[in-house]
Each structure stands twice: as structure tokens, then as C-alpha cells.
Structure of Sugar ABC transporter permease:
Amino acid sequence: MRIKSRISLSVIHIVLLLTSIACIIPIVLVLTASLTSENTILTKGYSLFPSAITLEAYRFVFKNPVQIINSYIVTIFVTVTGTLLSIMITAMVAYVICRKDFFLANKISFFIFFTLLFSGGLVPWYILISRILHLKDTPFALILPYVVTPFLVLLMKGFMSTIPFALIESAKMDGASEYRVFFSIIIPVSKSGLATIALFSVLIYWNDYWLSLLFIDTGKYVSLQLLLYRIMSNIDFLNSALSVANTSNIVLPSQSARFALAVVAAGPMLFIFPFFQRFFVKGITVGSIKG
């Protein structure tokens, strides 16, 4: 029996190892391709082990470092501020609708779920942000639309539903107010769920370029993702112009620049995700079971 268990465990480990390698290889390929010269990629193709390492693509991308640094600052500010607001408001809404003694809990839950299926449309949304709230060309136009995400509210509700209601009742019997119950009891025992929605919020804010494209006209508050998209569009346009002009002696780092932009855009997230992974798996599992 022990031999069969060891064999089964070994097979599981081998499968997980191969799966991990399969997930790591694309990341390594992106990194090595960004460090490979454009001519090498065009002649020899992509390789996990480049014959020569060059920073040509990164020098081209960071030709105007002030603009990229400014976009990094804007994106970091929007991500941190939006994530903190999203965590707090999402937790408050989820706590309210998971309370069994709140008579409007089911109706509010249905309203939140309804917004997952239908929306008011792009034009009313644009008018609300730009004309009514007057947030156009401000960082808050990049923060406000994602502060409350229905999916995250329902996910957090499923997690908070696992908290025994007797815990809340005993705190109320001891004279604790609703604020005391929420901040002193609910929040500390909901760290896994909060870390899960925090990771989702970070990814939503960090990878967003749509809000910046809609509401930001000046270059001062352009997000990192939109700036990188514009850089890549400019490279493609210049390559098209050079091909029309038959200037074969000039080669812009088109392919290598794509991978360099991917490293610049996704690099910070690769370092952040491992810190949330333990809470993320637990929060997703509990929330999906009880949701």
C-alpha cells in the first residue's frame, strides 16, 4: 500500500513539475526575446537561449524615460488608491448583504447580480464621469469606475458567509456597535478574502488602459498600459513607413520591443502575485464554495 501511495505521489509531483515548467517557459521566452536583437529574431527566430544579449529594445522603449516614469507614477497611484478604496467599500457592501438579519439583503444582492448581466451603456457612463461628476482629465476618472466591482462583492459575500453568525451575535450582546463588529471582528477574520479581492483589484487597475483612453486627453495622467500601447503603435507605423520608403538598412526593434513592453508592463505584477498567492487560493476556494 505504501508503494502504491509513493508511486501516486511521485506521479502527482511529476505532473505538477511539468505543469510549472510549462508555465515558466513562456515567461523566460518573453524575457530572452526582449534581450535579443531585432536582426537575430528576424533571421533565426525566437530562442530560450539567445546567442547574444542586447538592451537595444529597452533603450528604444526608454528613449523618453520621463514620460514612462510619469505614467508609472500615475498607474501606481491609481492602483494603490483604487485598491484600498475597493477593498474597504467591497467589504462593507458584502458584509451588509451577507447579514441574515438584514431584511433588504436579498434584494440588494439581486441588484448587484443584475449589474453583472446588464449595464447602462457606454454613453450614459461617459456622461456621468465627464459631465456630471466633472472627473475628466483627473486621476479619479481612472479610480472611480472600478471601486465597486459586482463580481468582487459577490465573491466577498460568499467568503463572509462562512463566518459564524453567532460570533456577531455574541459581540452585539457584549455591547459592541456595528462599526466595532465590522472593524474588530469581521475584518481580522476575513484576511484571505480581502487579499483575494485586493489581488483582483490590483490586476484590474494595473492592466487598464480603457479608462485612460476615454477620459484622459492630456499626457499628464496617461496610464502606463496606454502609453506602452501608443509606443508599440508608433513603432508599427514607423516600420510601415520605412518599408514603403524602401529603407532596408534601418530596422526598428519591432518584435523585441513587443516583449520589452510586456516585461515593463507585467514585471511588477510578477513580483506582487507570490505574496498574495496563499491568501488568493484560500479566498477563491472558500468564496466559490459558499457563494
Remarks:
- Residues 65-290 form a domain with the MetI-like fold fold (CATH 1.10.3720.10).
- The CA atoms of residues 162 and 222 lie 41 Å apart.
